[in-house]
Prior knowledge:
Layout: H1 2-25, H2 43-54, H3 70-82, H4 84-89, E1 91-95, E2 99-104, E3 114-119, E4 146-148, H5 156-171, E5 180-185, H6 196-205, E6 212-215, E7 220-221, E8 231-239, E9 241-250, E10 254-255, H7 264-277, H8 287-296, H9 301-308, H10 310-322, H11 325-331, E11 334-342, E12 348-349, E13 352-361, H12 367-378, E14 383-386, H13 405-417, E15 421-428, E16 444-446, H14 455-458, E17 467-469, H15 470-486
Amino acid sequence: MKNVLKGILGLGAVLTAILLFNTYNIETVRPMGNTVKLENIDIQKAVDRLSGGIKIPTISQMNSDKIDYTHFVNFNRYLRREFPRVFNTLESYTINKHSLILKWNGAQPLKKPVLFMAHMDVVPIDGQSLDQWTHPPFGGKADEEIIWGRGTMDCKGNLFAIMESVDQLISNGFQPAQTIYIAFGHDEEIGGNEGAKKSAEYFRNNSIDFDLILDEGGGITSGKSFGIEKAVAFVAVSEKGYMTLELVATGTGGHSSMPKKETTIGILANAITKLQANPLPAKLDGPTKLMFKAIGGEMSFLPRVIMANQWLFEGLIERIFSSSPAGSAVIRTTTAPTIISGGIKDNVIPAQARAMINFRIIPGDTPEGIVKMVKDIIDDPRVEVKHPEGQFGREPAPVSDPTADQFKFLTQNIYDVFPEVVVVPGISPGGTDTKHFLDLSPNIYRFSGIGKTDDSDMKRIHGIDERIGVKAYEKGIQFYIHLMKSLGKSQKL
Length: 493
């Protein structure tokens, strides 16, 4: 008995040693930010220019026949009018009538170029919500603290910050070492097939690929959602795939006065309930594992023990992250019923009922595998699972290496301008225009340089009272200025 007890105690000691070793080994040493002399920016002029851009309702609609393209024409004219120095210095190309490519020739043309991306289109406004806006969504209202309006965060704030940085650097007589390309798409919110996709084709046709691509997709926010006190600069090294499946329940219609035990709507509702009750499996690897490692060293002791020993606490980590929508989106392919239809009259049982289920696919899952899992979960021959016409799903983006020199370069520049943050690599739950550029660079990162925003502002994206802080916007301009200035130095990229 004593020997058994000794064995148990010995195993406990070994386990404790392993846990502690991993815990202290996960601590990360963040690079020190360099002393950066920030540029003197005419922030009022910059705010006014962004405000003017917000006033132009460049709205994307899923039905392209409903898009008013005159607004995109006006937006392009506005950029040329407000930034004459940029357009007089850089080469410019209009892609498919409305998207824009700018080329800033570098002093060392043999180096691979760098690409900065943003998009000029915005999502529509729900007409029923107009009275809930503090200021009109396309009013461009700005005061000393806040710039209000649709597109301030997604993603005209980024677009104008890039333009302001180039304008400022040109006025200072700066020329980058590497050639800088800038690509602004006009239909990112509806997939980018007419804008970013055509721009990517332009680069392929001209044999242009990139050392580094930077687009929206991450940003600086509170660390609370990550379980740490410090602000987080979230840099997405991948983005989720996308797929929508249609569920079709078929049965016998008839008069509502004599319903069968199960109607088509009931069958469909049961299928949806099964899907929501059985979320797809969590995956604590790939970009998610990178994120855990980055935040683990910033956590207090006990959470750090858990993050450093995923092999033991995988189930606990899964339960913790599954408790919130944001956390669940990080660790699994999400399942979201978005559209349901069936029936034409309140006293008629429909012979068919339909629902659309949207999936955001995490690396490691595939559209084909998800279809199989959905069929297995529903397990009802009366419910057909199929792709909507013309939609077959998009794989998750390849993971860009967070140990690459390009990522280190980006990280260093973030710490230079935002020394108070911790840089966290991970996966973007939403899609970006970079999906059309995957073969044009192995180093694609998704990070908005706009300064720290609070959690409430992050929730306003695509929602009511979208806005951006003036100080955050100014810091974003400073970030892009510093990043581009760094390209003028001797960098190993």
